[in-house]
Amino acid sequence: MEESILDIIQSIQELKKTVSDLKKGQSGHMIQSGTWKILDGWDNPNEISKIINQPSDREVVQKITFDKPFEKAPKIYVGFSHLDTDSDTNKIRIRVATENITKDGFTIKVQTWVVSRIFGFRIEWLAYTC
User: Fold this and answer.
1) Which of 7, 20, 108, 122 is the most buried (most CB within 10 A)?
2) What CATH number is given for 27-129 in this structure?
């Protein structure tokens, strides 16, 4: 029984080192992650339509800069971890995309259109190289 506990402890320590090396980029691979959020007040169609001149289409973009540049442009995964919407319309259209991916950073674009009302969101992102 003691050997199996020692084996588990050793495996956990090796895993911690692997994750630490990935974060530092020492293994030739690298991982970085973060969050972008607008939790209150994004979807005011009247104000945003003045900016983009299309009352039914709204978008917001955010430039993300990596803490440490990658050696080459990484792969990016993004996803919503929070979405605050208007339940009265019962129509939710929302899109999240990444653009301009470089070794230094990328841009996240969130779009909604037609009658969708999005009050806030949180997006989690993960950048990695293999």
Assistant:
1) 108
2) 2.60.40.2080
